[in-house]
Amino acid sequence: MRLAVVGTGLIGASAGLAARRAGISQVLGWDEDPSALGVAAERGAVEPATSLAEALQEADVAFVAVPVAVLPKVVREVLEASPTECAVTDAGSTKASVCAAAGRDPRFVGGHPICGAEARGPGRATAELFQGATWFLTPLAATEPERYRSAHALATMLGARPVAIDPTSHDRLVAVTSHLPHALANVLVNHAGASRVDGHDPLATAGGALRDMTRIAGANPRIWIDIFLENRSALAAALAEHRRRVEQLESALAEGDAGFVARWIGEASGNRLKMLESAYEDPGALHRVRVHIPDRPGILAGIFQALGAQRINVADFDLEHLSPERGGTLTILVTGEADAAGAARLLEAQGYGVVVAPVLQE
User: Fold this and answer.
1) Which residue in 113, 112, 154 sits closest to 132, CA to CA?
2) So what's the architecture of 170-256 in CATH?
3) Does the structural domain 283-358 have CATH classification 1.10.10.10?
4) Which of 191, 175, 186, 189 minimizes the C-alpha distance to 236?
């Protein structure tokens, strides 16, 4: 397979690195920003082309990884310059506009790897970015089967799991699973930031709940302004449904309806379990081991080495840093009550205070 990467930011450069690792020998790259192309070339992600036409001249697959706002225009340019047998796919977070721009061109297969990263730029690219990620493919009615197979093969070679979906359904889906959470994270942190409670600043006294729910707030505006506006219809529908559900809770609180609140929490618990089942083999057995640690070099390494020596497998972990003086809170996810208890005993023996609880409460 000969690959052309159009747009050599984080996603494009990562695709080039992953393609090299997968054994794709020819990976040409093109970017209107010569500095981005230069960094991607220095990282070994692509061989720089002198023009878009040169990058596409002998390509079997063209992978377009440019901002959503210019994606339809660039995809049209790539289709016009690509060989007849070249499959053209993309990495855009929304699909309706770019699929419409492709028209009935049989070479186009819309794509969206779900592999968001908080970093940006080719300097942060990594071949591991797509490992295990869902990669949506949105072929058109006119898409040739062979072109679809080429896009599917590329996603698989880069380490992702291809999933076919209709473009409109894709945009409605990501409106709920990605765009709505980002919007609500901004709403929550702005709500807290604009409030005062008897002179107290909520942001200065925020606990883990607000921090956890607003981790993605304020994400790169150059990307998210375009995403919100490109998918505004689906996002508006998701916000309207969210508003309806908030109003249901408001009514239950006003009426003191404990039954509704109990059912509501139970439904949330069941839905969260379904979500965790896609990430962990046995989410019902997950236990959270939480420990406060000082801000000193080597602390984390010592903890994980000790856990490894006792063959306690860490399914996941999170570090919430408070300040150099106050240290932070390390949360470790361990599968099984026995391993969680073992981790607690080990950490307590090292002088840490430990709190253990199941991730999913009965």
Assistant:
1) 113
2) Orthogonal Bundle (1.10)
3) no
4) 175
